Amino acid sequence: MMPGRHFLVKLARGLLTVWLIVTLTFVALNLSGDPIDALVGDQASPELIAHYREKFGLDRPLWQQYVSYIAGIAQGDFGLSLSDQRPAVELIAGALPHTLRLGLTAFVLGLILGVGFGIVAALNRNRPVDRLVMSFAVLGFSLPNFFLGILLILLFSLHWRLLPSSGDATALHLILPAVTLGTHFAGTFARFTRSAMLEVLNKQYVVAARAKGVPSLRRVLWHALPNAAIPIITIIGLKLGDLVAGSIIVETVFAVPGVGRLLVNAVTSRDFALVQAILIMVSVTMILANLAVDAIYTLIDPRMRAARSEN
Amino acid sequence: MSERSEPLLRVSKLRRHFGGGRSFFRSQRTIRAVEDVSLMLRVGETLGLVGESGCGKSTTGRMIVGLERPSGGEIVFKGRDLAGLSPGDWQRQRRDIQMIFQNPQSALDPRLSIGRQIREPLDLHEIGDRAVRDAEVARLMQAVALPPETAGHFPHQISGGQAQRVVIARALAMKPSLIVCDEPVSALDVSVQSKVTELLQELQERFDIAYLFISHDLRVVKQLSHRIAVMYLGQIVEEGPTDPVYRQPLHPYTMALLAAIPDLSAPRRTRSGRLMGDPPSPANPPPGCHFHTRCPYARPRCSAEMPVLREVQGGRSVRCHFAEELRAES
Question: What are phi and psi of B141, to 5 degrees?
Answer without folding.
Answer: -65, -35
